[in-house]
Write a structure and sequence with these properties.
168 residues; mainly alpha; globular
């Protein structure tokens, strides 16, 4: 039953992603992204990562989507929607980048089909320590430098957004 639900939620997540990519209306794209966030949270629940699923819904589906919708409403994108990018160079670039990403995904799936990926936290180890402790240890012990670099980049992004907004 879990396998069937995994494929159903995976297909729904891909459908939501296609709505985000193919929709010309930014509000419809934002709603598709919200749907994709919820289906990804369902996948996390199926993988016994309940904490990550809750954080997915709270942070991404809650805060980030509200920010996206306010940005869409404040920017008045109706005038920008009319101007389409139909340059053949941008289409070729987009198709080549998309094809490259799909090729890399196929290579990863082929590689892990032969040798499956086994992480450091096995289900037995997670049952002893718990998901939240394992995530905390992983972030603050193994990935502390990327975590701090990400926080600095987020602060730089916030400062840049304030500078751009105050330009008027």
């Amino acid at each position: 039953m879990e396998g069937v639900l995994f494929w159903v939620f995976g297909a729904l997540a891909v459908a939501g992603t296609l709505v985000v990519i193919l929709s010309r209306n930014p509000v419809n794209s934002a709603i598709g992204l919200l749907f994709c966030f919820f289906t990804t949270a369902c996948l996390y629940v199926l993988l016994d990562a309940q904490f990550v699923a809750v954080i997915q819904v709270l942070i991404y589906a809650g805060a980030i989507m509200v920010l996206f919708l306010f940005t869409i409403m404040l920017l008045n994108l109706e005038t920008d929607i009319k101007k389409e990018v139909t340059s053949p160079g941008t289409r070729i670039l987009g198709i080549s980048i998309g094809s490259g990403i799909l090729f890399e995904i196929a290579l990863l799936l082929w590689h892990y089909r032969i040798t499956p990926f086994l992480g450091t936290y096995t289900p037995e180890k997670l049952s002893l320590t718990g998901n939240i402790q394992a995530i905390g240890r992983s972030i603050f012990r193994d990935y502390i430098l990327p975590f701090e670099i990400l926080s600095v980049l987020l602060i730089i992004g916030i400062i840049g957004a304030v500078v751009l907004a105050k330009r008027d």
